[in-house]
């Protein structure tokens, strides 16, 4: 089945600094890919590359099975971008204009614009059409972006920190909308977020970028259902290390003052082998911490 | 292309309407104080292109609008062409508005606080509306040519950075013209001859056609250059 997004080997350099290093990523139909990483890791740069907002030194971007880039023709741009809803990390609409004028701009740009649908989202989000964009809070600005992104009935949503600035209730509401969106098997979402608990709730796959390189790209269930986090004392840690349960260089752990957090690849097998060691479910945040900051043995 | 033009025009529609209201006031002030409609139409028509260029450039700098605009279903060249067309359309619309204000002023001149000489001047101008239009067209064309110089820089580097480059570019252009022009024509004599020739209202259509051709030529060359520069811009 064709992926909605398939990027291979994206590389971008500024002088001697490599900001994207052989980045590969995909978003399948019916799936939500969460994209995580620290500030400046390359999430927004990757999204800009996918949207053809910057020239690349190497790599390819395919959207809906079709090559796409900064110099794609008008017909390719119209065909591909009309199927994408974009939410950027800050509300990008012209501050002096009222919310309703934003819809006029979007209506002119998108043939599939549904004014009624846009107005429904404004109602649902409690957005005043007369209010100027510059007077919206960050959270309201993100909701307006989401309303605009959904009102032209896209097949793919590309969301850069879409839930940032939203209160917990509003975040849950947005996550519900995203779940509704991917209920259609032809739809897909790429969502970058610092709030990994949101991705715990909705992502099917999680990719992590660090220093411009993808450090892991795994089904979320593998992280949250199969893997675990063992809370060990030093003696237990040494016992586990000596048991041969881990291949060399696969033990990932973080030392704390009163113990060691150890990444467990198979939580159930680990519990059978080491019943005295507390092993809890792993979150995306735990896995990211262990992968990016942990020691390896 | 239509999507690019209309989406950008939607953003400045209200600005344009506000400007028309301002032009009405400015037009009446200039027309009454100077006692002429030709100068008034020329002034307003000359203001529009540069105001629109700066309005669009200001919007581009606002909240990352330029980046978001590039995510809309339009290609980069369409974005640039739409920008040029919107500046041109807004300028022509302003010329029409200024001309209408002049005609209204002409009709109202006997009841306005004008001296007899000014009333007579405006009455004379009303007998040659094409001259009034020609004055506006000349003002608009000159500034459109100036904006042809500005826009590629503004689109590629943004307003703030472009304003650092533009004085240097203008200086080079000015030096080039002052060095080359005397080699080609006797400028003072040419200007004197042209002024005499253009006083004949029958020559105004020729002036308008000539200015239109030169301005559109410069505008198209500028647009092509801007497209080439904008294609590589990182957003």
UniProtKB/TrEMBL annotation, chain A:
InterPro entries: AAA+_ATPase (IPR003593), ABC_transporter-like_ATP-bd (IPR003439), ABC_Transporter_VariousFunc (IPR051782), P-loop_NTPase (IPR027417). Keywords: ATP-binding, Nucleotide-binding, Transport. Pfam families: ABC_tran (PF00005). The keyword Cell wall biogenesis/degradation does not apply. The keyword Nucleotide-binding applies. Residues 5-236 form the ABC transporter domain. One of its GO terms (molecular function) is ATP binding. PANTHER family: ABC TRANSPORTER ATP-BINDING COMPONENT (PTHR42939:SF3), ABC TRANSPORTER ATP-BINDING PROTEIN ALBC-RELATED (PTHR42939). This is ABC transporter. It comes from Slackia equolifaciens.
Automatic annotation (TrEMBL), chain B:
The chain crosses the membrane at residues 12-32, 38-59, 80-108, 128-150, 162-184, 204-230. Pfam families: ABC2_membrane_5 (PF13346). Keywords: Membrane, Transmembrane, Transmembrane helix. It comes from the Bacteria. This is ABC-2 transporter permease. It comes from Slackia equolifaciens.
């Amino acid at each position: 089945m064709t992926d909605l997004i398939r990027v291979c080997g994206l590389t971008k350099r500024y002088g001697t600094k490599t900001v994207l290093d052989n980045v590969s990523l995909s978003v399948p139909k019916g799936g939500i890919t969460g994209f995580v990483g620290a500030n400046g890791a390359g999430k927004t740069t990757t999204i800009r590359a996918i949207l053809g907002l910057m020239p690349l030194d190497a790599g390819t971007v395919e959207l809906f099975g079709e090559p796409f880039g900064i110099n794609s023709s008008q017909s390719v741009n119209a065909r591909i971008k009309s199927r994408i809803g974009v939410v950027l990390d800050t509300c990008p609409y012209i501050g002096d204009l009222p919310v309703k004028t934003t819809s006029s701009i979007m209506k002119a740009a998108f043939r599939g614009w549904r004014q009624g649908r846009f107005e429904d989202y404004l109602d649902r989000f409690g957005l005043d059409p007369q209010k100027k964009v510059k007077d919206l809070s960050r959270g309201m600005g993100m909701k307006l972006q989401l309303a605009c992104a959904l009102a032209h009935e896209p097949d793919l949503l590309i969301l850069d920190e879409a839930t940032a600035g939203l209160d917990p209730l509003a975040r849950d509401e947005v996550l519900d909308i995203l779940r509704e969106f991917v209920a259609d098997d032809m739809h897909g979402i790429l969502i970058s977020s610092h709030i990994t608990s949101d991705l715990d709730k909705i992502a099917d796959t999680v990719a992590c970028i660090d220093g411009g390189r993808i450090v892991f790209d795994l089904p979320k269930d593998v992280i949250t259902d199969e893997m675990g986090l063992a809370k060990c004392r030093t003696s237990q840690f040494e016992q586990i290390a000596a048991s041969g349960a881990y291949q060399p260089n696969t033990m990932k752990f973080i030392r704390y003052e009163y113990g060691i957090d150890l990444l467990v690849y198979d939580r159930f097998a680990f519990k059978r082998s080491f019943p005295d060691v507390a092993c809890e479910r792993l979150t995306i945040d735990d896995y990211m911490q262990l992968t990016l900051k942990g020691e390896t043995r | 292309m239509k999507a690019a033009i209309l989406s950008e025009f939607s953003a400045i529609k209200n600005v344009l309407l506000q400007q028309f209201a301002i032009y009405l006031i400015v037009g009446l002030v200039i027309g009454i104080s100077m006692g002429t409609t030709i100068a008034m139409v020329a002034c307003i028509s000359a203001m529009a292109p540069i105001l629109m260029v700066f309005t669009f450039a200001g919007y581009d700098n606002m909240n990352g609008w330029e980046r978001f605009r590039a995510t809309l279903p339009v290609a980069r060249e369409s974005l640039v062409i739409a920008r040029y067309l919107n500046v041109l359309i807004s300028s022509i619309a302003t010329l029409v508005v200024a001309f209408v204000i002049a005609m209204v002023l002409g009709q109202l001149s006997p009841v306005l606080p004008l001296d007899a000489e000014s009333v007579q001047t405006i009455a004379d101008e009303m007998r040659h509306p094409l001259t009034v239009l020609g004055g506006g067209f000349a003002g608009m064309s000159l500034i459109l040519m100036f904006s042809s110089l500005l826009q590629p820089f503004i689109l590629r580097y943004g307003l703030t950075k472009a304003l650092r480059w533009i004085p240097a570019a203008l200086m080079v252009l000015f030096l080039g013209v002052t060095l080359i022009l005397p080699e080609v024509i006797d400028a003072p004599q040419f200007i004197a001859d042209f002024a005499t020739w253009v006083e004949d209202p029958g020559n105004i259509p020729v002036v308008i056609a000539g200015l239109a051709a030169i301005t559109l030529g410069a505008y198209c060359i500028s647009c092509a250059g801007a497209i080439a520069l904008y294609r590589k811009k990182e957003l």
